[in-house]
Amino acid sequence: MNASVVGSGYVGTTLSACLADMGHEVTAIDIDEETVERLNGGEARIHEPGLGPLLSAYAGGRLQATTEHVAAAETDVTFLAVGTPSNPDGSIDASILLAAAEDIGRAIADKDGYHLVVVKSTVMPDVIDEEVIPQIEAASEKTDGEEIGVAVNPEFQREGSAVRDFMEPDKIVLGTDGDERALDILAELYQPLVSDWEVPVVETGRREAAMIKYANNAFLAAKISLINDLGNVCKLFDVDAYEVADAIGLDDRIGEQFLRSGVGWGGSCFPKDTAALVAGARAAGYEPLMIEAAVELNDRQPERLLELLDRHVDVEGKRIAVLGLAFKPGTDDIRGTRAKPVIEGLLARGADVVAYDPLAAETMAEEFPKIEYAESAAEALEDAHGAAVVTDWPEFADLDAAFDAMANPVVIDGRRIVERRRGIVYEGLTW
Ligand SMILES: NC(=O)C1=CN([C@@H]2O[C@H](COP(=O)(O)OP(=O)(O)OC[C@H]3O[C@@H](n4cnc5c(N)ncnc54)[C@H](O)[C@@H]3O)[C@@H](O)[C@H]2O)C=CC1
Ligand SMILES: O=C(O)[C@H]1O[C@H](OP(=O)(O)OP(=O)(O)OC[C@H]2O[C@@H](n3ccc(=O)[nH]c3=O)[C@H](O)[C@@H]2O)[C@H](O)[C@@H](O)[C@@H]1O
Fold this sequence. Notes:
The protein is of the alpha/beta class. The chain has helices spanning about 10-20, 35-40, 50-60, 95-105, 125-140, 160-165, 180-195, 205-235, 240-250, 270-285, 290-310, 340-350, 360-365, 375-380, and strands at about 1-5, 25-30, 65, 75-80, 115-120, 150, 170-175, 200-205, 320-325, 350-355, 370-375, 385-390, 410-415, 425-430. Strand 7, helix 7 (about 180-195) and strand 8 form a beta-alpha-beta unit.
């Protein structure tokens, strides 16, 4: 099948490369010339394990990139995979998506025959009905359900395992409102995944599909916040929250994943998607208490880490190491990272912050240009009066003798990654 993908970021690049690997002809369309040039050269502007080999195998062959939206008219189906950032009030800024919808509408205006547009970007249900579909219809002068179809097919991949998550998904959600032509195209497109992995396919309405994505992320974020809340209680009673989590996770109704307690969740989507749900619900006259509590608890965890540090060290004027800056290991992405509030709290206390991250130091330096960045965890720990561990980079598990070089070996671990050992004052956030 011939597919086009608008937007070559985290989601669009993974989608393009994986569809090519599944045997489809793919046209990746991005407004950024450098992104397009790199893609045609077999290179992505994002780091994702497994993406490199796919791009070098298919770029210039089954996978072609371009800045020309009109190329979409030569394909059977177009995915919209552009960003949907937050407005200051937490609601979604759909302007990038609407601009892409307009670009595609214009591109297919003269096309003979049916064209399917699939929304991959995360947006609230009302935006699909009230803005995206009317925009495509207006720009193409075609009617939804007649010459064109619009489907909603949310993406559940994680950064750091995007290719594997895409190729071996837990589910595929197809929101079509029962449009048979749309379902046939999507069934053919995803057929290799469905038959290889017996993936459940959820056929549903477009509004429901959009909400499933938000509900999925809100549930996962709230699950982490709940284990963090329980973990904070565990700490008060000198109980190890990880032992508790391992045990409750054995109950199938709870499940073992996403029970790692600590300094909280970050990333490009949990903060944005929970904020959008809260803003949407409030605008519609409902106070979504559980989701608001999940967000509030998440905002408090970094302060708890700092309070634990305060119990052992007066950080004012002291060198304090922050280990880990990325929102999770395996990425240089610092969006929503808990390291920001930790650094801000340390600076507010008058500490001299020295930070280390194997990938994210350069991006963090744009936000905090005045703090020191070490070349290694050992260098950050040297002469430090305390250390706050914010990201669970595996290399932190191997730290040992480096702690001996600290001026005052206090380690507050926000991720349960450092080994408790003799000679250091070690505190876990929830254990
Ligand atoms: N990052 C992630 O892991 C996940 C993201 N999502 C959702 O997927 C959507 C896309 O997210 P990302 O891939 O992270 O975004 P991104 O910001 O990494 O990439 C978006 C790309 O779209 C391009 N673009 C913008 N306007 C365009 C236009 N009119 N025509 C062509 N290209 C255009 C940009 O140049 C950029 O390369 C968002 O709604 C996000 O919430 C969903 C699941 C996972
Ligand atoms: O919509 C999205 O963009 C994506 O958001 C998350 O994926 P991602 O943000 O890439 O990363 P996760 O692995 O979910 O981690 C998010 C945050 O939660 C934290 N986390 C995760 C798991 C856990 O047990 N405890 C915990 O604190 C991580 O450290 C990280 O800061 C979801 O897991 C994906 O399904 C979704 O597609």
